[in-house]
Design goal:
The complex is a heterodimer of chains A (333) and B (72). With 333 residues, chain A is α/β, with parallel strands linked by helices. Chain A has helices at 25-28, 35-45, 59-71, 96-103, 121-136, 157-160, 217-238, 256-266, 287-295, and strands spanning 4-18, 22-24, 49-51, 79-85, 111-115, 139-147, 165-186, 194-195, 214-215, 248-251, 304-310, 314-320, 326-332. In chain A, the strands form three sheets. In chain A, strands 1, 4, 5, 6, 7, 10, 11, 12 and 13 form a nine-stranded mixed beta sheet that branches. In chain A, strands 2-3 form a two-stranded antiparallel ribbon. A two-stranded antiparallel ribbon of chain A has the order 8-9. In chain A, helix 7 packs parallel to helix 8 (256-266). The termini of chain A are far apart. By secondary structure, chain B is mainly α. Chain B has helices at 3-15, 35-49, 55-60, 64-70. In chain B, helix 1 crosses helix 2 (35-49). The N and C termini of chain B lie close together (8 Å). The chains are: A alpha/beta (333), B mainly alpha (72). Chain A binds chain B through residues 40-41, 43-45, 158, 217-219, 221-222, 225-226, 257-258, 260-261, 264-265, and chain B through 16, 32, 35-36, 38-40, 42-43, 46-47, 50, 52, 55, 58.
Chain lengths: 333, 72
Amino acid sequence: MNLISINGVSVKSISCAVPQQRYAIMDYAPDLLNEKTARRMAKGTGFASLCITLEEMTTADLCAEAARSILADEKKKKIGALVFVTQTPDYILPATSHVLQHKLGLSNDLFCVDINEGCSGFVTGLYTASLLAKQMEVDVLLLCGDTISKLTSSTDRETRCIFGNAGTATLVTPEKGKKLVFSFKSYGERNKTIVMENSRHRKVAKPLNDGYLYLDGEGIMEFALNDTLDMIKEFLASTSLQKEEVTFYACHQANRIIINSLADSLGVPREKMPFTAAEIGNESSASIPLVLTRKQRELEMVKTLCAGFGVGLSIGLALADFSLTTFYGVREI
Amino acid sequence: MDSKTFLAKMQEEVLDTEMEISMDTLLGDIEEWDSLSVVSFIAMAKATCNKAVDRKAIASAQSVNDLYTLLQ
């Protein structure tokens, strides 16, 4: 496996924003669920309610709102790069990170990049931001989020009742004595496990799920409990960490069955690998910053293992110390 | 895992059904045997028996007992 240490960077702050519209899944998908099936679905997936934006609000809006809390306390001119991780950008072009540079009043002297990544996106973004912070010797604003609900079919229960919307902002800064450790895997042979066929330039005659977001639930479960589990074990061995030494397993909130099963299969208490997305939904790359924010008072953060896994299929792992990170909470907008 | 424990786990955790099931119950007769239950079964197999159950094998199973066989 690849194992990359980046010395001299840390996560200074994290801020999150969700839309204030919150729907019980039965209310959000009345044609797909009745009281009994909604109860069963919520019990299984863990998602009882979803935070959904109004149509005109985008991921960039959510991330910009999250960023404002951080920018109120920081010197904007110290920010030398902006990384926007999303699978729901404002446009195909230009890159939305340029739009956000302007929207947030950041300097024209800015490196901007959009990253098209979902479930593993926070870790991919954190890695990119860390490299930039170290090389450029600047603060880096990492924005991660999605409005995946806009990609789902109203006739597909498997996706419609799962995804919520959120935007997050993370400030990565150069800091001596601090370190982040990363590892990544890509399983492109299984790219159709989570896919929107015909969504851009690759066309097929009969797209899965009529071109809406398609999810192979069984394939994802197998991926989580086999490949992701194995990679976490390998990562712990490579970093000479016992599983008990990790203070917090901050996993992408795919659904409750997956999180609980991962914890049980790895042999760690479920409290250390929490599921906190019951009232918001699967938030794509925003889910790890959200679980960190929600549990930062209850769990030790000094040895946190972030595990993003899913669309790609891909896995990103990051070992980090968030014990001195400032958390701005979750704003509802 | 003995069959009694397996049935209890199937009833309460995997299927979450009020229907009384036995080893002979046909999966096609269980309303709650759907994609959510299949995923729960995969999770249960891994967590309790450390078994990665093949999804094709699950699809071929006709009865509750067929699923039990997959865990052996």
